[in-house]
Specification:
The chain has 172 residues and is of the alpha+beta class. Helices cover 38% and strands 24% of the residues. The chain has a 6-stranded antiparallel beta sheet. Helix 4 (121-136) runs antiparallel to helix 5 (154-168). The longest helix is centred in the last third of the chain and has 16 residues, at 121-136. The chain is globular. The chain starts with a helix and ends with a helix.
Length: 172
């Protein structure tokens, strides 16, 4: 059954040559997309600073290394318990998805890391939304909001941010 579903999907998929290729991500394109999401975004030589849903976001990129990182500060690690450390590691495995919890410089961060050149617009927007969601749900659901199991109101509320950002980015 599963093999038949995969085969059917492959047969009906648009061939790669027929799909319109998205341009490679550059610092200029990255800035253009982010400025649509937050018109007050601050562009620096190596990245961007902006706010999504009252959460500060920092993107740093290195064109030569072909890497980008979207980061959201969450809290100091000073007061984290071993249970909280375990919970963020569990979330990294099953509910943070493309975003991750990380520790650096004595701080807990939400991060999204991706090769810069290959990054597509919707991947960037989704990664930003997921990173904001892991920050906002720290201490409760520990989720990126991109996929969630179970019933309730949380998954709809978290997915709403992703939908809003994707809608803003449609014209780029």
């Amino acid at each position: 059954m599963f093999r038949a579903m995969i085969t059917a999907a492959l047969l009906t998929a648009t061939p790669l040559a027929a799909q319109e290729a998205e341009p490679h991500m550059t610092m200029e394109r990255l800035a253009e997309i982010v400025q649509v999401l937050d018109e007050d975004a601050n562009v620096t030589p190596n990245g961007l600073e902006f706010v999504i849903d009252d959460v500060p976001v920092l993107i740093v990129a290195d064109v030569r290394a072909n890497r980008m990182r979207a980061m959201v500060p969450i809290s100091s690690v000073e007061g984290m318990t071993s249970e909280e450390m375990e919970r963020v590691l569990q979330a990294n495995f099953d509910s943070a998805l493309d975003a991750r919890y990380a520790i650096a410089m004595g701080r807990l961060w939400g991060v999204f890391i991706h090769p810069l050149r290959e990054l597509e617009r919707d991947q960037l927007i989704s990664g930003i939304a997921q990173t904001v969601n892991v920050a906002q749900t720290y201490g409760s659901l520990y989720t990126s909001g991109a996929a969630q199991f179970g019933a309730g109101d949380s998954s709809g509320l978290q997915a709403q941010l992703l939908e809003e950002l994707l809608e803003k980015g449609q014209d780029i």
